[in-house]
TrEMBL record:
Coiled coil: none annotated. Residues 59-164 form the TonB-dependent receptor plug domain. Belongs to the TonB-dependent receptor family. GO terms for cellular component: cell outer membrane. Its main location: membrane. Keywords: Cell outer membrane, Membrane, Receptor, TonB box, Transmembrane, Transmembrane beta strand, Transport. InterPro entries: Beta-barrel_TonB (IPR000531), Beta-barrel_TonB_sf (IPR036942), Plug_dom (IPR012910), Plug_dom_sf (IPR037066), TonB-dep_rcpt-like (IPR039426), TonB_rcpt_bac (IPR010104). This is TonB-dependent receptor. It comes from Acinetobacter apis.
Length: 824
């Protein structure tokens, strides 16, 4: 657990932020304000003043508590993808991979507890073991706006506990007449001394057809990036016995990520309706080469102690391809007093990993091993440790995998305005049919007893210490020439994670909106019926059998929200909502893997998580791009899912290990979000060019886990108690510069056995600082220079106490230079 001193260090900067925002409330109470229309409760992504205003206009049409960042705002910060653009919003944090933002957490709830939609249709996940979507497959150039909806209305899918990320792609009706833009960018990664190109463009226009005027729009966008970078890593995986470490791995990564994204959208509008076809395609190719030098000590090794152990040099290479396709056809039409809104959606996500080298291992034993730092336990020895001739080839493992996740849906909404008791009302009802199927297939080839040879070359430029030579993948594969792959199939590893899972959800809802002077009330009820079936594989000491499971359940989900206009520029909102999230497909898989007295298996009897949510929000609009917002939230979660070990109980009484998943009884998360942004245009020149903003989320979580012997309290996994952003910029018609900082405090990453809290793993606090500048050469041509990770922030995870490494990884800053041509 954290010491008191650590807690103070983590929260102190944002306690000051809280005080500052409270002081600004007194200031803005006397500020001159401009009339604004009443809209949704939302806080803003930080960008130029124009983009902040665009987000404000967009969010006013929503009936939910949300956070929005507009396309212009995305372009103002050095964000490589949609996930990184979202980190600027209150309550949003990122799970990073190799320093690059991938998965989004909202208000402390992990990625698998949130949903992602593109143009209104659900996006499935390409990874086999997740529901959460890695948003790094979506280049930011394809996005018109991003919203994180934090409260649900009955006409929305109820499948998010933290929030629903809504991705809206380009539309020709976002601009008047012909619009086009193109960007050429080059970036440089300092750690690996590599350069990367990026090209993107978008075009849209409106046309007059069928007797209308500018009533048909076409918009297209494309983006391509080939990013080359790397990272240096040292990790123990939490393998500590007291102050002594059992295992250490030093890892050297070379990575190439190729992104291709494209969108083509059609919109047709009439006086009484509108129709659309929106398409999006994104391809993400991740080519990774990882060299590792690993040690398993004979006995736990302490700092500055001379130890013996087995050292293994290992290579992993893969070329993993993910793609997402989304097609949405829909429209709405007025029929007399009724508005009919219909939509059909199809989305497919898949991940292909053709046979790469999942492990090529060479080992040797040494007696003079030591390390000097428990946070970075890079081990050293004599020259023999770095001499290829010291090592003998043990085995080569190759792995192939294919995952596909498809979702098809049809939904229909009908609404009508009416007047009752001199008040305006709207009744709305409808339903949705969703069909989802996820499949995963893996095959593993294990080659042992191969002849030894010198498969090494060069010397790694490893920034954490001496590493020695790298393994040549071509020489590794040459050992397999002439061998029949079928003779080396590992049936246990190949069957363990195979499954086919189907999830059918049918839903109905009824809601009513009432306007009473300055008060708006939205109340309703949603019903969701879930029917699941799955097949998997059971491996039991060499015997493989098929397993099946079925599960049916339903949920009634009431909600009510109120919005009250205190004055023209001040809104007060409160909401009670309910949500339900199903277990991930891997968690509920019927697959079982039994090897001797060790077992690992899914739990098809897991219950869905259900949450009751209470939200209260107050926000004040003022001036140019000015907003001050304060929100409080409380979430009461039932059927919390966690990892557990059932060894020693029931049918697993004689097992050493029986890892699976289990429902907890309950968990709670509560906290406050504070946000402020403004352009200081009332100051005298040149200070009137200042644009700045801050936001912070302060929250607390409690959850209970147990096994047959022990019950204990934990923080909710992935929950950071403090999340915050600060942005300070200056802009004019000619030049602009911005510095932004993103902070999140520590979070529980991995839960050990219930009875061993000292083995839990925590992600340490992080602060990423980015720089963005622009120079307008003329009204159509812009030059930009950005620096991502200017602070050279690292990733660090630790076991129990901060001094004991679980993982340390560094990436270095990335410098970007771009030229953008825009016509509108």
């Amino acid at each position: 657990m954290l010491s008191l001193a650590h807690k103070k260090t983590s929260t102190h900067p944002f306690q000051l932020t809280t005080l500052f925002v409270a002081m600004m409330t007194l200031h803005t109470a006397h500020a001159d304000t401009d009339p604004v229309s009443v809209g949704t409760i939302q806080v803003l992504g930080v960008g130029q003043a124009a983009s902040i205003n665009a987000a404000l206009r967009e969010q006013r049409s929503s009936d939910s508590i949300s956070s929005v960042v507009h396309a212009d705002g995305i372009g103002q910060l050095p964000d490589a993808n949609a996930a990184e653009a979202l980190q600027r919003l209150p309550g949003v944090a990122l799970e990073r991979d190799q320093g690059e933002g991938r998965f989004v957490t909202v208000r402390g709830l992990g990625t698998d507890l949130n949903a992602v939609t593109i143009n209104g249709t659900l996006v499935p996940a390409p990874e086999s073991n997740r529901r959460g979507v890695a948003l790094d497959v979506l280049p930011s150039e394809l996005v018109q706006s991003l919203a994180v909806v934090k409260t649900l209305t009955p006409d929305m899918d109820a499948n998010s506990l933290g929030g629903t990320v809504q991705v809206n792609s380009l539309s020709a009706f976002d601009h008047k007449g012909l619009f086009y833009t193109g960007t050429a960018e080059g970036s440089y990664n300092d750690l690996r001394d590599k350069y990367s190109p990026k090209f993107s463009g978008a075009i849209s226009n409106r046309f007059s057809i069928l007797g209308g005027e500018d009533n048909f729009g076409v918009a297209a966008a494309v983006s391509y990036q080939n990013r080359k970078f790397g990272s240096d890593n040292v990790e123990t995986g939490g393998e500590w016995t007291g102050q002594g470490v059992d295992k250490v791995a030093m890892r050297y990564y070379d990575i190439e990520r190729e992104r291709l994204g494209a969108g083509l959208n059609f919109d047709f509008r009439t006086d009484s309706g509108e129709y659309y076809l929106k398409t999006l395609y994104s391809k993400f190719v991740d080519t990774e080469s990882r060299n590792a030098m690993k040690v398993k000590y004979t006995t736990p090794c302490f700092v500055d102690q001379v130890c013996s152990g087995k050292v293994t040099r290992a290579l992993k290479t893969r070329k993993e391809t993910q793609d997402i396709q989304s097609y949405v056809l829909g429209g709405k039409q007025q029929f007399g007093m009724w508005m009919v809104d219909a939509q059909a959606g199809y989305s497919r996500a898949q991940e292909k990993n053709p046979y790469g080298i999942s492990a090529a291992e060479y080992s040797a034993k040494f007696k003079n091993l030591s390390y000097s730092n428990s946070k970075q336990p890079v081990f050293v020895a004599g020259d023999a440790l770095y001499n290829p001739s010291s090592y003998t080839l043990n085995s080569i493992e190759r792995q192939q995998s294919f995952t596909r996740d498809t979702e098809k849906n049809i939904k229909l909404d009908l609404s009508r305005d009416y007047n009752l008791w001199s008040y305006n009302h709207q009744i709305k009802f409808g339903g949705k049919i969703s069909r989802r199927e996820k499949t995963n297939d893996e095959n593993v080839l294990l080659y042992e007893g191969l002849a030894n040879s010198n498969d090494f070359y060069g010397d790694a430029d490893y920034s954490l210490g001496r590493f020695g030579p790298l393994i040549d993948p071509n020489r590794v594969l040459s050992h397999l020439n002439g061998l029949n792959p079928n003779d080396y199939l590992d049936e246990q590893l190949s069957a363990a994670n195979d499954f086919v899972s189907r999830e059918n959800i049918n839903s109905l809802y009824l809601m009513n909106s009432t306007d009473i002077d300055r008060l708006k009330i939205i109340a309703g009820l949603r019903y969701e019926d879930t029917r699941k079936s799955a097949t998997g594989q059971q491996y039991n000491d060499g015997v493989i059998t098929e397993t099946t499971a079925k599960q049916n359940y339903h949920h009634w989900l009431p909600s009510i929200s109120l919005r009250y206009e205190l004055d023209q520029n001040t809104l007060l909102r409160t909401a009670f909502t309910t949500a339900v999230v199903r277990p991930t497909f891997a968690q509920s898989s019927p697959g079982v893997n039994i090897d001797g007295l060790d077992a690992e298996f899914g739990n098809p009897e897991l219950k869905a998580l259900k949450s009751r949510n209470f939200d209260l929000n107050l926000e004040k609009y003022f001036g140019d791009a000015g907003v001050l917002s304060a929100s409080a939230f409380y979430k009461d979660i039932n059927n919390f899912i966690y990892n557990t070990d059932l060894a020693g109980s029931g049918q697993w009484a004689d097992f050493d290990e029986a890892k699976t998943y289990q429902n907890g009884s309950s968990a709670t998360i509560y906290g406050i979000e504070l946000s402020y942004s403004q352009k200081m245009d009332r100051l005298p020149a040149p200070w009137n060019g200042l644009v700045w903003g801050v936001n912070t989320t302060l929250s607390h979580s409690d959850a209970t886990i147990k096994d047959a012997q022990t019950t204990r309290k934990i923080d909710f996994p992935s929950h950071s108690k403090v999340i915050g952003n600060v942005m300070l910029g200056w802009e004019s018609a000619l030049f602009g510069v911005k510095v932004s900082a993103n902070y999140k405090s520590r979070a529980l990453y991995e839960i050990a056995d219930v009875s061993q809290p000292d083995q839990d793993i925590y992600n340490d606090r992080q602060t990423f600082v980015d720089l963005s500048t622009y120079y307008n050469i003329n009204k159509n041509l812009k030059l930009k220079f950005d620096v991502a990770n200017l602070s050279n922030e690292k990733y660090y995870a630790y076991t129990s106490e901060r001094a004991l490494n679980s993982q340390y990884e560094k990436y270095g800053p990335t410098y970007k230079l771009a030229l953008t041509l825009t016509h509108f």
